Amino acid sequence: MGDSRPELINAYTVWLLGIQPPIWRRIELAGSCSFWDLHVAIQDSMGWLDYHLHEFELYDPRRKQNVRVGLPDEDDGLETPLFPGWKVPVKRYFKRPGDRAGYLYDFGDGWTHDVQLTGIALPEPGVAYPRCTDGARACPPEDCGGVGGYEELVEVVADPRHPERRSIIAWLKGHAKNYHPYRPEYFDPRKVVFTDPGERLRRMVE
């Protein structure tokens, strides 16, 4: 007989490091998912566009060393092992509340996140997963130059008399996502739309 128990749901809190007030999200998705699925859920909930490389960094007690999970790159030149995210289940490393991992997105801008497993529960009836249940503040625009560039952008946009404001607004409008008007304090978890990780992986491979 098959296992009739419902699949458990993992709740994660994701913090974008280096920015105050904090930018963070709370997301829930199946405990059986892969790190690729978790990556896509983080991208969608934060508001990133998945334009750049990413990786998770975790401590592997079996290997007694840090490991990386993400997109394999034969030329990265690092000694720390890197495993394909779609081949690694999250339950291998996220076993109990309090377990955490680093998540780096865009190695140029260097957006570093802290990802913590905050709960494990039964699915709620009628709820579609993944879902975003809470969070705060808008995600920085892609390619804005990391934490320093983001802080400068927020300062310029808030100052109607700043000499660079017109060019920054033109850049925001011309971006692939059209970030104008950029409201750094605004975030509504109800407006998060989650995309299909399998479809995104197929597009990447093709």
What does this structure look like?
The protein has 206 residues and is an alpha+beta fold. The chain has 2 domains: 9-137 and 187-205, Structural Genomics Hypothetical 15.5 Kd Protein In mrcA-pckA Intergenic Region, Chain A; 141-186, no CATH class. 21% of the residues lie in helices and 27% in strands. It has helices spanning 35-46, 146-158, 165-174, 197-205, and strands at residues 9-16, 23-30, 54-60, 65-70, 82-84, 100-105, 111-121, 131-136. An 8-stranded mixed beta sheet has the order 5-4-3-6-7-1-2-8, covered by helices on one side. Strand 3 (54-60) and strand 4 form a beta hairpin. Helix 1 (35-46) packs across helix 4 (197-205). The N and C termini lie far apart (39 Å). The relative contact order is 0.20.
**CATH architecture level-2 label of the largest domain:** Roll
The CATH topology of the largest domain is given as Structural Genomics Hypothetical 15.5 Kd Protein In mrcA-pckA Intergenic Region, Chain A
| Overall CATH class of the largest domain | Alpha Beta
Mean pLDDT: 93
- Classified in CATH, the superfamily of the largest domain is MM3350-like
Strand neighbour order, sheet with most strands: 5-4-3-6-7-1-2-8
The succession of helices and strands, N to C, reads EEHEEEEEEHHH
Query: How many β-strand runs?
Result: 8
**Major sheet size, sense and barrel closure:** 8 strands, mixed
Distance between the termini: 39 Å
Structural class: alpha+beta
Q: In terms of per-residue confidence, which ranges show pLDDT below 50 for 5 or more consecutive residues?
A: none
What is the beta-strand fraction?
A: 25-35%
